[in-house]
Write a structure and sequence with these properties.
The protein is an alpha/beta fold. The chain has 15 helices and 9 strands. It has one domain. Helices cover about 40% and strands about 15% of the residues.
């Protein structure tokens, strides 16, 4: 496994993972408010891309029409219609810190009173107060220690339950909404549009696979077995007669940059024909998609709207966008200017 690094942590690739569990959206009414504008259906006539501006919408529709029309020279067989999406900054925000990093910090704050040894740890005690300088100085060792404190030595069910409790109750300070409500409406529509044309949609993210698998089916319509992300060690044993999986300390595979095509090979087994991303961390995945024998499409979200969301590209620790933007122009990837190309960013706007 590849070792985790500090920049990967800030970019969202930080959480140990193995198998996720889910609960239905019907059990979580707050989720329904997000997906009410999206009808997960196989009838393409029912799917709308009305949150998109005309120019990028036309480019998407023209490509999908070309590759799904039988007899077209660009036709892609159904079994090869693989679409991959980054998560942080592509399907939901990643500022001011990746949401999963906030989950880790909130867990530290919540459990700190129960762990006197954490209170004596200068890195942990500073991090819960928003001071990350001790963590930066501690480097990899300090980061791994925080990850182990918040994500290891837990059963699969215990970890999933802690994520579910957080995701169901915690609101973004920036938007005043649950994190699962602050997801990009145009991208939800795009996922639905692709599925309506018989594409299979996957997440390939630097975020922890376990963390995402708890809720991605409810929010994105992407089941846990189509979520690829950062993962670590897991142990199987029978405890009191019950088969049990536990997350344990160990090496971490960070699903970022060149590791994304590697993970696609390992866990999907087919080269994508569509790729959505937003940063240089997604560049290798887009290069891999562009090398398909079929007519492919790559979409890069450029965060340009400080009023409705965030504006950033090169000056950020999470979601750095520079070299991928240059290559996008060279290879004619679709660059989405979120300020101008998204009529609505969130369903609540």
């Amino acid at each position: 496994m590849k070792k985790v690094n500090f920049n990967a942590f800030l970019g969202g690739a930080l959480i140990l993972s193995i198998v996720g569990c889910k609960q239905g959206a019907k059990d979580h009414p707050e989720v329904n408010s997000v997906v009410s504008e999206i009808s997960y259906t196989e009838d393409a006539s029912d799917v709308s891309l009305d949150a998109w501006a005309d120019a990028p919408k036309k480019e998407i529709v023209d490509w999908v029409t070309a590759v799904t029309t039988e007899g077209s020279s660009d036709f892609i067989p159904v079994q090869d219609r693989i679409a991959v999406f980054d998560n942080d900054g592509t399907l939901w925000p990643e500022q001011p810190v990746p949401n999963q990093a906030q989950f880790m910090l909130d867990y530290l704050k919540k459990e700190m009173p129960n762990h006197p040894e954490w209170q004596k740890n200068p890195v942990a005690s500073a991090a819960v107060k928003g001071d990350f300088e001790p963590l930066k100085k501690a480097g990899i060792k300090g980061l791994i220690d925080l990850i182990q404190k918040t994500h290891s030595n837990k059963t699969e069910d215990d970890f999933n339950n802690s994520v579910r409790q957080w995701i169901d109750t915690t609101k973004s300070k920036r938007f005043g909404k649950l994190y699962t409500e602050a997801v990009y409406l145009p991208m939800l529509q795009l996922l639905d549009y692709l599925r309506a044309h018989q594409f299979k949609t996957f997440i390939v993210s630097g975020g922890g696979a376990d963390f995402m698998r708890v809720w991605t089916e409810d929010i994105y319509g992407i089941p846990p077995y189509q979520v690829v992300g950062t993962y670590g060690e897991v142990k199987y044993e029978v405890v009191d007669g019950k088969p049990t999986l536990s997350k344990v300390p160990g090496a971490i595979f960070v699903d970022d940059k060149t590791e994304k095509p590697e993970a696609i090979h390992r866990f999907i087994g087919k080269k994508p024909v569509f790729c959505g991303g937003n940063s240089d961390g997604d560049q290798a995945m887009m290069q891999y998609t562009s090398s398909s024998k079929y007519k492919s499409m790559c979409v890069i979200l450029h965060h340009t709207d400080a009023e409705r969301e965030f504006a950033y590209d090169t000056k950020t620790l999470s979601g750095h966008l520079e070299t991928a933007l240059v290559e996008a122009k060279e290879k004619n990837w679709l660059v989405v200017d979120m300020k101008n190309d998204f009529k609505k960013i969130f369903s609540f706007q």
